[in-house]
């Protein structure tokens, strides 16, 4: 075989080997992470966990009661003047878009203000945004435990002010039953983009 032909053959074999290697790596990645094709920023650190809270009807619930299907979790408070209403409106709009795609996703609002957010107030807040949005509150200890499980932050600015504001995290978390947390969304994520990305996870979830 001429040297040039031999070189071409070796190069071709090299290309095939690389292609097989890439294919094998992608197959392994998909097997270990069924949502690999849906992630845009890499696999996030594992967060989340069990919680015990009170829903907007006054009933004691756990994460297993609340996360019965694909769920979007957000930590905030009803007295929030701007961020929480905007973020949860975005989440609700994304859920409506997902419904049009044939995907049922539950929006959940976990209050970080148990001193003021009664179940009745949460019901008013969530009913305005989406009929299936679930509002959760609890004792300060229960709320703190749920927040720590999802590594969120919140701090009252001035506890002595009856109209106090609360600094807090603004991430939204996509969670599945049995699987747990799979992705988070920043404030700048649009309803359309959130719906598109959540749909990918829903469709890729092991059945």
UniProtKB/TrEMBL annotation:
Gene Ontology MF annotations: metal ion binding
Pfam families recorded for this chain? SCO1-SenC
Residues bound to Cu cation are: 80, 84, 168
Arranged from A to Z, the UniProt key words for this protein are:
Copper, Disulfide bond, Metal-binding
Keyword flag Metal-binding: yes
> InterPro entries in the record, alphabetically?
SCO1/SenC, Thioredoxin-like_sf
Which SUPFAM superfamilies does the protein's record reference? Thioredoxin-like
Disulfides per UniProt: 80-84
Assigned protein family: Belongs to the SCO1/2 family.
- Protein name, as recorded: SCO family protein
The species this protein was found in: Phaeovulum veldkampii DSM 11550
Organism ancestry:
Bacteria, Pseudomonadati, Pseudomonadota, Alphaproteobacteria, Rhodobacterales
